[in-house]
From TrEMBL:
One of its GO terms (cellular component) is cytosol. SUPFAM superfamilies: Actin-like ATPase domain. This is DnaK family protein. It comes from the Eukaryota. Keywords: ATP-binding, Nucleotide-binding. One of its GO terms (molecular function) is ATP-dependent protein folding chaperone.
Length: 320
């Protein structure tokens, strides 16, 4: 039976399989290579992936996102910094459930834990992989952050087991990246000569740098530095707060407690960030943004760099 590799992201998830033609990225029901890592709950159904994304603005308070960063989290001193950080980005309200496990209030009688949310998502991943490959899938390899402890990895294994798919290995992202690089470049490595590579990855929710030493027969991870509080969403939130402050100043209105309005701001901030990566200007304009008031804020690369000044230094408490 085929085995699949699952890159479980905070924002989206990719699935790959290996065949005679090499590595193939699995396409989902919409023929996309990335499936939103979202699970949403309504009165009578559970929405997963693209279906949850479609209903996100109308059902934000019953949607769980950033599942990867919630797995294994408890209301204890060792997890408190991460829990408080994730609370800022949560849609469904985080609550403390049985055994001090962090769960989410989604409008149902019982709160839903991250493991309970991940199970149906993995079932969806398994089903779409089988549909794409045309054969049953029994096992997987899951890529996880470097900072994951045994508790977090156990949560992944539990979710896989409950989803009916065997987890052959829980692999750190940094190791998976190093393995991918080395497999297809063996001819570059010479016995007796060091070949050291630094991999940097700034994802949606974290930033990682990994130093790897290669030989023709093996590779060794020499060091990894990871900040689980610095990522693309950190930049987005800086822009969101700037847009929010400008809107408040001009209209006197505060949309910060309106989930739909804040999701609109997040989308606009992310779009502006991407535009400014290649252009000098990217004004933000949203018609009838909140209570029939428009949002119109000029934004350029210089303003963005000034806003990001405090976020450029890595926080030592999140380093591993």
């Amino acid at each position: 039976m085929p085995i699949i590799g699952i890159d479980l992201g905070c924002l989206g998830t990719k699935v790959a399989t290996v065949g005679r033609g090499g590595v193939t990225i699995v396409r989902n029901d919409l023929a996309d290579r990335v499936t939103p890592t979202l699970v949403s709950y309504t009165d009578n159904e559970r929405l997963i992936g693209d279906a949850a994304f479609t209903s996100l603005k109308s059902n934000a308070r019953s949607t769980i996102r950033n599942i990867k960063h919630q797995l294994g989290m408890t209301d204890t001193a060792e997890d408190r910094d991460v829990v408080e950080l994730e609370r800022r980005f949560a849609l469904a309200e985080p609550v403390v459930a049985e055994n001090r496990v962090i769960a989410f209030s989604v409008g149902r009688e019982e709160p839903v834990t991250a493991v309970a949310a991940l199970v149906p998502f993995l079932k969806k991943v398994k089903a779409m992989s089988e549909s794409y490959i045309g054969a049953p899938v029994s096992d997987c390899v899951v890529a996880v952050p470097t900072w994951y402890s045994d508790v977090h990895k156990t949560a992944v294994l539990d979710a896989c087991s409950l989803a009916g798919i065997g987890c052959h290995k829980v692999m750190q992202h940094s190791t998976a990246t190093a393995l991918d690089y080395g497999l297809f470049r063996r001819s570059m490595f010479v016995e007796g000569q060091r070949h050291v590579v630094v991999f940097t990855d700034i994802g949606y929710a974290q930033a990682t740098a990994t130093v790897v030493d290669y030989t023709p027969k093996k590779f060794t991870v020499l060091a990894t530095l990871e900040d689980s509080a610095l990522g693309g969403r950190s930049i987005d939130q800086v822009v969101v707060q700037h847009l929010l402050a400008q809107f408040k100043s001009k209209t006197g209105l505060d949309p910060s407690r309106n989930a739909k309005a804040m999701l609109k701001l997040e989308e606009a901030a992310e779009k502006a960030k991407k535009i400014l990566s290649a252009n000098k200007d990217a004004g933000v304009h949203l018609e009838c943004f909140f209570e029939d008031e428009d949002l119109d804020v000029p934004l350029n690369r210089e303003i963005l760099q000034d806003l990001l000044g405090p976020a450029r230094s890595v926080s030592p408490e999140y380093r591993t």
